[in-house]
What does this fold into?
Amino acid sequence: MPDNSRMDWLDAVKWDAQGLVPVIAQEAGSNDVLMFAWMNREALARTAELGRAVYFSRSRGKLWFKGEESGHVQTVHDIRMDCDNDVLLLTVSQLGHDPSIACHTGRHSCFFSRLKGDAWEITEPVLKDPGSIYSYKP
It folds into this structure.
């Protein structure tokens, strides 16, 4: 007889109405916040299984293996869940370019705009032209 007293670890996550959970990717070592994305149940299970970041692309409506087109793969070292069980934090190594590129704009981090006074200031350079990285245009 199977042991049903052990809850499936995926059931502990509070999925939103669309079956998604927000995910923050933070770089191991530097602790830079690289990006924000979404995962569905299958993406989280695949991430844990493969040790590689797999997200759910809302614009494409399907699983998105980070780096599948760009080569900028995220190796996952740690998966954490917040106190409300509704946000995940991945500790990752960003591979595929030195310095690392996580953003589809060709920058290290997706968080490259900082509010300065009453205007947004770009704080990070483009490391590689996104036109040379992607055929898919969001």
